[in-house]
Design goal:
Blueprint: E1 8-12, E2 19-24, H1 31-37, E3 44-49, H2 53-66, E4 71-76, H3 85-97, E5 105-110, H4 112-124, E6 130-135, H5 138-144, E7 149-154, E8 157-164, E9 169-173, H6 182-199, H7 201-216, H8 219-239, H9 255-264, H10 273-290, H11 296-308, H12 325-332, E10 345-348, E11 354-357, H13 362-375
Parallel strand pairs: 2-9, 3-4, 3-5, 5-6, 6-9
Antiparallel strand pairs: 1-2, 7-8, 10-11
Helix pairs in contact: 3-4, 5-6, 5-8, 6-7, 6-8, 6-10, 7-8, 9-10, 9-12, 10-11, 10-13, 12-13
């Protein structure tokens, strides 16, 4: 059953750094009120991107104004290219040009790019000012806006320079997803399904029944999915804020494969991160099945659902020249999650039962990829 469309409030239990996540249709209009309630009734500097600004910025500025919060805004070019040292420097300069003060607040209105960039700028400017996340993509609502990971990309790789810096408030308005291109929505759906596969079989079954309605625009389904995802992320972050244990690592289910697929296709529009995660998750389940750890029926169910949603459920569409298993294995060795030279995999004992493994024989990964490459 799909619950009714009532806004939800969750807490991220991080002691002195605890904060609320407000989820619901129209929540954007209450952002100023929520900020006042959270003790953030100070001048706000809204950071957004060139796609989101014409769609949602005015309503956010009006919401801040209505709560008596003075504001200005900075718009960065849409796209991952803004998440660089140059982009960061430009944003820091813009905030300093606006005479940002220590007690002001940065508000990130956008997807994961804006959230990661504005969060890092907030961590750095004046040695740290408060910030609020107002995520506008499904990916940002279910994943990147919660948990305090901020970063920019460098020529060495994605997200290699950043900080753990928690927001003071997250406001996820499920209505803003109405303007999101379908492909971006589906990419975010892959990260939503990830929560089911990694830790909640019931949620996965719910997604099997309601995923299509969610993508088609069903408000109650969107709220339920964002809420359940945020609940799980909040619990994981509260248990392992800085990924020193294995809990937070589970969020990387499918990501070791995904990063190799993204690297091989140039980290661009050819393959969105969420699409790579769908493919990676299918491969991680298949790997688990080959290792005799997961019932083959569960791996097949994950593949079937991702495929039914229109996401890659095996190797994604190949780059020019096709997939090369050896190249992919090599790229996996470059993943940020490599520890002492060993690639860390998140495997499953079934849907909802993920765990960390550091001793997957590389030959099995290579043969899995070679077989999959044959099948493309
Ligand atoms: N910090 C974390 O924990 C974390 C987790 C996962 C991903 N990330 C990062 O998030 C980034 C990806 O985030 P993303 O998928 O949200 O990408 P994104 O921010 O680039 O947004 C995707 C596209 O949608 C547009 N857009 C955003 N909201 C819109 C709306 N409501 N209507 C219409 N268009 C809209 C954007 O302008 C962009 O073109 C990556 O850089 C990734 O590294 C961070
Ligand atoms: Zn991801």
């Amino acid at each position: 059953m799909t619950p009714t469309a009532t806004p939800a409030r969750l807490g991220v239990a991080l002691g002195a750094r605890a904060y609320d996540i407000v989820i619901g249709p129209g929540a954007l209009a209450g952002t100023g009120r929520e900020m006042v309630a959270a003790g953030l009734a100070r001048r706000a500097h809204v950071v957004t991107d060139s796609n989101v600004a014409p769609l949602h910025l005015d309503r956010l500025l009006a919401a801040l104004d209505a709560a008596g919060i003075a504001s200005d805004s900075v718009t960065v070019p849409a796209g991952e290219e803004s998440k660089t040292f140059d982009g960061l420097q430009g944003l820091l300069s813009a905030l300093l040009d606006r005479r940002i003060e220590r007690r002001d607040c940065v508000v990130a209105l956008g997807g994961g790019v804006v959230g990661d960039l504005a969060g890092l700028a907030a961590a750095l400017v004046l040695r740290g000012v408060d910030y609020v996340q107002v995520p506008t993509t499904l990916l940002a609502q279910v994943d990147s806006s919660v948990g305090g990971k901020t970063a920019v990309d460098t020529p060495h790789g994605k997200n290699l320079v950043g900080a753990f810096y928690q927001p003071r408030l997250v406001v996820a308005d499920t209505d803003v997803l109405d303007t999101l291109p379908r492909r971006e929505l589906l990419a975010g759906y892959a990260e939503t399904a990830k929560y089911g596969v990694l830790g909640d079989a019931e949620f996965f079954a719910w997604l099997e029944r309601n995923g299509a309605a969610l993508v088609a625009g069903d408000a109650a389904a969107r709220i339920h999915a964002v809420r359940r995802s945020c609940e799980m992320k909040a619990a994981i972050v509260a248990a392992d804020e800085r990924e020193t244990g294995d809990e937070r690592a589970l969020l990387n289910l499918g990501h070791t494969f995904a990063h190799a697929f993204e690297a091989a296709t140039g980290f661009g529009a050819a393959l969105l991160h969420g699409e790579a995660v769908a493919a990676g998750m299918a491969m991680a389940c298949e790997l688990s099945a080959r290792l005799g750890l997961c019932p083959p029926g569960d791996a097949a169910r994950v593949r079937r659902h991702l495929g039914a949603m229109g996401l890659p459920a095996g190797l994604p569409p190949p780059p020019p020249g096709g997939w090369n298993a050896e190249t992919l294995v090599r790229l996996m060795g470059h993943d940020k999650k490599v520890e002492g030279g060993r690639v860390r995999f998140i495997l499953v004992r079934g849907i909802g039962k993920a765990f960390v493994s550091r001793d997957v024989p590389p030959a099995i990964v290579a043969s899995l990829l070679a077989d999959a490459a044959q099948a493309v």
